[in-house]
Amino acid sequence: MTEPPHRTVHTVSELAEILRALVEDSLPRLWVEGEISNLSKPASGHWYFTLKDARAQIRCAMFRNANYLVRPPPQNGDHVRVRAQASFYTARGDLQLICEYMEPAGEGALLRAFEELKKRLSAEGLFDPDLKRPVPSMPRRIGVITSATGAAIQDVRAALARRFPLLEVVLWPVPVQGAAAAPAIVKALRELPKRAPVDAVLLVRGGGSLEDLWAFNEEAVARAVRACTVPVVTGIGHEIDTTIADFAADLRAPTPTAAAELVTPDGRAFVARLQRLGDAATRAMTLGLSMSGERLARARGALQRLHPRRALEERAQRLDDHEQRLRAALLRRLRDGLQAQTALSQRLQARDPAQRLKLARVGLAQLGGRLNTALGAALRLRRAHWDRQQALLRSLSPQAVLDRGYAVARLRDADGGQVIRAPDDAPAEASFVLLLARGRLDVRRTGPD
Predict the structure, then answer these.
(1) What is the pLDDT of residue 157?
(2) Residue 199: its pLDDT value, please?
(3) What angle do CA 176, 182, 186 make, to 5 degrees?
(4) Which are the contacts of 180, defined by CB distance < 8 A and separation ≥ 6?
(5) Phi, psi at residue 369, to the nearest 5°?
(6) How close are the terminal C-alpha atoms of the chain, in Å?
């Protein structure tokens, strides 16, 4: 029976490559958060682990050229956030993530530090409402402290242009994230009013995680806000985000756009129309950039699939799998051999003549002990019987009778002395001896009575 001509048959390898291309083309790079388990770090330097939550898990690989920047190295049970490319590991038929970046997840420690600093500065009076300065209702020049390339400055400029186009804006660019952000913000709050005669300062940035906004939770920034010579208006993150700098500021806005609106009067009507046109252009540009970015991402993904490094990485992963299986097999063989050797050794010891002789000696010693115990018991019984017989003999001996106060009379004659039991046994004028308990008496009968 022949197959229909329209049927296409793929090998397993072909299907696996199709699945990998489908997964990597359809899914862009993404962020995934979860708990690490089954972490393996073979000698190659690559990491293999599983990311899981309460309901699902997925295999992950992080190769040596990416994981050397992760400090400290992760452990099983760590809660992490990774940036990864979804892929399909053809050798095992598994969906997996190729991780490019890893960072700890969870904001518990940062939240505790935030609450402690907030409580301490509040107790110090740094957030006292009486310290708040009024914001000018008709400013002529506004200072803006934020990133020159971030979305916040764009939002502020758009809001100012919409509400009050004649307002002059002085930008002091600073990093708004990372270790250098807080010192730069402190310097800007101190130097900007000196360099330009501004009526107020906007301290703004776009939204982000608690870690991203942490520069605005530094104590030095809060004190610099209060020490600034002009009113400070904050617009940091989104409406739900609140920082230490917001509490110290003279006025807090929920977003950068709202901060710009709070310091400017309402503009003319035609500005609103211009703003709508500008928004439409921005959306069109953003959409165009987004589409271009997606095309670039797909092209980059295709290029990476064809890059020799991907093939080397996959072969390295296969080599690590073989190494782990070989090591496990060797350990099993070694364990089985040790168990067999132990069993043979135990059997040999059980049949060893020296061991059997030792056991016989132990049994003989036990029998000797039992014999000695039995002989001792028998001797004690014989000695007790002997003592009883001696006591009986002593109680029946003549000496015992004498000791009780009696005397024995014996005739003094050549026959050895007949015992006198009655007066008739002793003739008149007879000599006899009275035997006492201690000593004797020589007696002579002088008459018949």
Answers:
(1) 92
(2) 94
(3) 110
(4) none
(5) -60, -40
(6) 161
Q: What is the pTM of this model?
A: 0.41
Q: Cβ-count burial of 363 within 10 angstroms (0-12 exposed, 13-18 middle, 19+ buried)?
A: exposed
pLDDT digits (tens, 9 = 90+) for 263-284: 988 766 545 666 787 888 888 8
Q: How many residues does the chain have?
A: 449
Residues facing residue 233 across a β-bridge: 202, 251
Q: Categorise residue 43: left if φ over 0, alpha if ψ from -120 to 50, beta otherwise.
A: alpha
**Residue reference for tokens 């067999």:** 340
User: The tokens of 239 are what?
Assistant: 């409406």
Condensed to tens digits (0 to 9), the pLDDT of residues 195-227 reads: 999 999 999 998 887 778 889 999 999 999 999
Q: Classify the phi-psi angles of 429: left when phi > 0, otherwise alpha if psi is within -120 to 50, otherwise beta.
A: left
> CA gyration radius for the chain?
56
Q: What's the pLDDT score for residue 293?
A: 81
Q: What is the number of alpha carbons within 13 Å of residue 27 lying toward its C-beta?
A: 20
Determine the Cα angle at 18 with ends 12 and 22, to 5°.
Answer: 145
Q: What is the residue type of 312?
A: L
Query: Residue 151: CB partners within 8 Å, gap ≥ 6?
Result: 206, 256
Low-confidence ranges of the chain (pLDDT < 70): 1-5, 106-110, 267-274, 413-417, 447-449
pLDDT number for residue 270:
46
3 state SS for the chain = CCCCCCCCCCCHHHHHHHHHHHHHHHCCCEEEEEEEEEEECCCCCCEEEEEECCCCEEEEEECHHHHCCCCCCCCCCCEEEEEEEEEEECCCCEEEEEEEEEEECCCHHHHHHHHHHHHHHHHHCCCCHHHCCCCCCCCCEEEEEECCCCHHHHHHHHHHHHHCCCCEEEEEECCCCCCCHHHHHHHHHHHHHHHCCCCEEEEEECCCCCCCCHHHHCHHHHHHHHHCCCCEEEEECCCCCCCHHHHHCCEEECCHHHHHHHCCCCCCHHHHHHHHHHHHHHHHHHHHHHHHHHHHHHHHHHHHHHCHHHHHHHHHHHHHHHHHHHHHHHHHHHHHHHHHHHHHHHHHHHHCHHHHHHHHHHHHHHHHHHHHHHHHHHHHHHHHHHHHHHHHHHHHCHHHHHHCCCCEEEECCCCCCCECCCHHHCCCCCEEEEECCCCEEEEECCCCC
